[in-house]
Design brief:
Length: about 425
């Protein structure tokens, strides 16, 4: 099958490479000529474990190509994926400019029966608009299908090759057959493919992300109460996670959700619901709790130094910058809020992240210093803040940390250390919702 993927970002590049890995002939298109040139040179523009191997193998097998020419990629394609961004507009609604722009751009080039797939996360009714846009510019034989993407950055290849489920929204038998054929290499059990109406598929994606965001905000709120009442949130997590109705995943308290999806998708569903006349009190709270949580660590460290001459000129070490481990994605990362708040309070901020240094620089610029290792970051620090739970940091023992720095003040935004062990190593340690050691 010939596949065109329009938009070669996290989703488009992973999807394109994985479809090529599964045997299809894939052309990935992007309007960013530098990105296309880099990909043609074998350079992967994002950090995603395993992606380089899948891309290089598929290119070597002559099944994966990169171009800026949408028309050429689309005209021979059996399936065209739209995988461009849907950033929040001014009021938080998903901005569909890029998606509908692609619909208009591909329309005149469709030849033979083509399935046009909306993989971008889009509000209910967007596939109807994509279809209307294409029909306004072409009389091509085609169906528009909703096929939202559920991959997680940091584990994207594995998620794509071994999906929990593939959601396909269409009423067309022809489109259903073609999509089933395309996904066949990745499907072990028929229940993994969920066919449904297009609008249901569009809603499913938002409901999934909003549910996960709600769990995070819920646990963060529980952690605040734990902090106030000397209860360990990790005990509570174990206690509730063992209930099969609740499940063990997504129960970590921390410093709030970030990334390119949860913040914008919560906002988008909020606005969609409000525009439809629905009271969206729960999602409003999910967002409000998250906003407070993102500022929590900066507030705590500023308060800590308030009676010690203030935080001005104190050296504050940030361990991690990316919004989560195994990615260099800095979009909506809590580190941005924390870094900016500390810089505004005149602290000297020095940060170390194993991979996100360049992307972090785009957000935080030269206002903070970037260390070459965690040891360099904590050396001479007045306080150490854990921002991202990279494995590299999880592996640091309290004794190792104590040997690397004279600093004995730690604010752990990801609960990677044990309070009792940290206390024994001499640290004044504060996690999120953890009992003092
Ligand atoms: N990143 C994730 O983890 C993730 C997961 C699931 C779903 N999604 C959704 O997938 C969509 C894409 O997200 P992303 O993170 O890959 O975005 P991204 O910003 O990383 O990539 C989008 C790409 O599209 C390109 N582009 C824009 N307009 C174009 C056009 N007219 N023609 C060709 N290329 C064009 C951009 O240059 C960019 O490279 C969004 O709707 C997002 O919500 C993202």
């Amino acid at each position: 099958m010939k596949v065109a993927v329009i938009g070669t970002g996290y989703v488009g590049l992973v999807a394109g490479a994985c479809f090529a890995h599964g045997g299809q002939r894939v052309t990935c298109v992007d309007i960013n000529a530098d990105k296309v040139a880099a990909l043609r040179d074998g350079k992967i523009p994002i950090y995603e474990p395993g992606l380089d191997t899948v891309v290089h193998d598929a290119v070597a097998a002559e099944r994966l190509f990169f171009t800026t020419d949408t028309g050429a990629a689309v005209q021979s394609a059996d399936v065209v994926f739209i995988a461009v961004g849907t950033p929040p507009g001014e009021d938080g609604s998903a901005d569909l400019t890029y998606v509908l722009g692609v619909a208009e751009a591909v329309a005149p080039h469709l030849q033979g029966y083509t399935v046009v797939v909306c993989k971008s996360t889009v509000p209910v009714g967007t596939c109807d608009k994509v279809e209307a846009t294409i029909r306004a510019h072409s009389d091509a034989d085609m169906d528009v299908v909703s096929n939202p993407e559920f991959l997680k950055e940091g584990a994207a290849i594995d998620d794509f090759l071994h999906p929990d489920r593939v959601v396909i929204g269409t009423d067309s038998d022809r489109a259903r057959e073609r999509m089933a054929e395309l996904y066949k290499p990745y499907i072990e059990r028929s229940e993994q493919v969920l066919f449904m109406a297009r609008r249901s598929a569009e809603m499913t994606k938002y409901a999934a992300n909003c549910m996960l965001a709600a769990r995070i905000s819920f646990m963060n709120e529980v952690a605040r109460v734990c902090d106030a009442l000397d209860v360990d949130v990790l005990d509570v997590k174990r206690g509730i996670g063992s209930d099969r109705r609740i499940g063990r995943h997504f129960l970590n308290a921390g410093i709030g959700y970030g990334g390119s999806c949860f913040p914008k998708d919560v906002q988008a569903l909020l606005r969609t619901g409000q525009k439809a006349g629905c009271d969206m009190a729960l999602l409003e709270s999910v967002e409000a709790v998250n906003a407070v949580q993102k500022g929590l660590l900066a507030e705590r460290v500023i308060a800590h130094f308030a009676d010690q001459g203030g935080i001005a000129d104190k050296r504050i070490a940030l361990l991690g910058l990316a919004f989560k481990p195994e990615t260099d994605d800095m979009r909506e990362a809590p580190s941005i809020v924390i870094g900016k708040a500390l810089v505004a309070a005149d602290a000297n901020v020095v940060a170390y992240d194993p991979v996100a240094r360049e992307t972090a620089y785009e957000e935080l610029g030269g206002d903070i210093a970037y260390a070459a290792s965690w040891q360099d970051a904590v050396d001479g620090a007045d306080a150490v803040l854990v921002i991202t739970e990279w494995l590299e940091f999880r592996g640091i023992s309290p004794e190792e940390l104590a040997a690397a720095t004279d600093c004995r003040v730690v604010f752990d935004g990801r609960n990677i250390w044990d309070p009792a062990k940290m206390a024994r190593a001499g640290f004044a340690y504060q996690g999120i919702g953890r009992r003092a050691g």
